[in-house]
Amino acid sequence: MSLTVAIIGRPNVGKSTLFNRLVGKKLALVDDTPGVTRDWRAAPARLAGIDLTVIDTAGLEEAFDDSLEARMRKQTERAIEEADVALLLIDARAGVTPLDHHFAAWLRKGNTPIILLANKCEGRAGAPGLYEAFELGLGEPVPISAEHGEGLAELVEALLPYAPPEEVEPEDDDGAAGGTADGKPEPVRAIQLAIVGRPNVGKSTLLNSLVGEDRVLTGPEAGMTRDAISVEWTYKDRPIRLVDTAGIRRRARVDDKLEKLAVADALRVIRLAQVVVLVVDADAILDHQDLTIARMVLDEGRALVIAVNKWDIVTDRAGTLKQIDDKLQAQLAQVRGIPVVTMSALRKQKLDGLLDAVFNIYEVWNRRVSTADLNRWLAGMTEAHPPPAVEGRRIKIRYMTQVKARPPTFALWVSKPLDLPETYIRYMVNGLRDALDLPGVPIRMLTRKGK
Ligand code: GDP
Ligand code: GDP
């Protein structure tokens, strides 16, 4: 059973690009004979364990002569009928257009569930359109970049409620584990986990220790994108999906000459994950490349756990821990409280500690703070240390809300948002982290012009 998704939206928002991203490049090369009305393209894809049939509606509007609205409607109507869920794309760089509004209003009347995707959100250029997208009344927009492959983990998350429950692997001997009273497996969302790190730190060993050496890791099948490769297991009854096991196997063979490749690879994997375990070698702790990867994880808004491996061969344990702590304070000061665990992948020591840390940080990463609590806290913060004055007039912060979780993202309504200094925003973020219990996760603070 696959989930049928239709990619819809006005021309040029990136529908074909997303289609290609999901189904793999080869299928994108379709033969277009001018003047011939073609039907939509549909192709199978697999995204982090979900089987999809993806329908692309791009280009179909050219077959009709009516107004653009009417053409879009025709092109889309049938695709939506076929689909279990529709992905409505907007171009976050261009912002929400009247045509997007028109389209959304029409879609809201239908029965097909809509996931709103704000495309072209790589970098920061998409932010304004992302906010405007809330106005479409189709729920929280998911920021993605079809071209750069960003936001796929969030897309997976948005699709999961519609995905058919996966087959659950039979438990080895204790048949009691898992499942509901009537014996049916209960679909639970798996945490998307990535294991990254320099070559030879012990990533492959860790993977094997976590999921069992005998576990067969399947490679890409025909028609499958490389991003789809994953392995899933459970810990304390909670499913974990490790993304990109192929990357781990491949990287296990590369040597230090290919450092650059390893970093580029890590970035691709980080973007598929929710929680990233950065494995570091207890022998060469948090060197330049480790810190580069750690920063990438945080910049991408993922939850980070630092796993200090090969703890079995460390003699000066206290000294090593102190060294790590110093490095983190000096080099990753912007995110206080990043969880650090020590372990031995080879001896299977303290793997529970690692996974507990993964689930804890995942919970913080998902945390939502009520608007009432936020504004109470805001009043205290601005009173203790008011924002500076610009040209004789004090900048006023009027209001604050959490716009999303994963990672916790807040919006400040400010009288002069562009004048609010970066240091003040940092003061707010640090205060928020302590007062409202958000240790160790990236926090995003956005400013908007207050009414
Ligand atoms: P469609 O008409 O909706 O199918 O749009 P296309 O997929 O043909 O994309 C329209 C244009 O947007 C092309 O130039 C793409 O390269 C560009 N595009 C698509 N996705 C992205 C993205 O994530 N970021 C940026 N910056 N451009 C994108
Ligand atoms: P990868 O390149 O990050 O996947 O690293 P590997 O998993 O291939 O491990 C590199 C080397 O480190 C291998 O020789 C492993 O046996 C060794 N190793 C991995 N984990 C540990 C550990 O916890 N303790 C010790 N002493 N050696 C380890």
Automatic annotation (TrEMBL):
GTP 2 binds at residues 197-204, 244-248, 309-312. Residues 3-167, 191-366 form the EngA-type G domain. The gene is der. Residues 165-185 are annotated as: Disordered. InterPro entries: G_ENGA, GTP-bd, GTPase_Der, KH_dom-like, KH_dom-like_a/b, P-loop_NTPase, Small_GTP-bd. The keyword Nucleotide-binding applies. Keywords: GTP-binding, Nucleotide-binding, Repeat, Ribosome biogenesis. One of its GO terms (biological process) is ribosome biogenesis. Pfam families: KH_dom-like, MMR_HSR1. GTP 1 binds at residues 9-16, 56-60, 119-122. This is GTPase Der. GTPase that plays an essential role in the late steps of ribosome biogenesis. Residues 166-175 have a biased composition (Acidic residues). Gene3D superfamilies: 3.30.300.20, P-loop containing nucleotide triphosphate hydrolases (3.40.50.300). The lineage of its organism: Bacteria, Pseudomonadati, Pseudomonadota, Alphaproteobacteria, Rhodospirillales. It comes from Skermanella stibiiresistens SB22. Associates with the 50S ribosomal subunit.
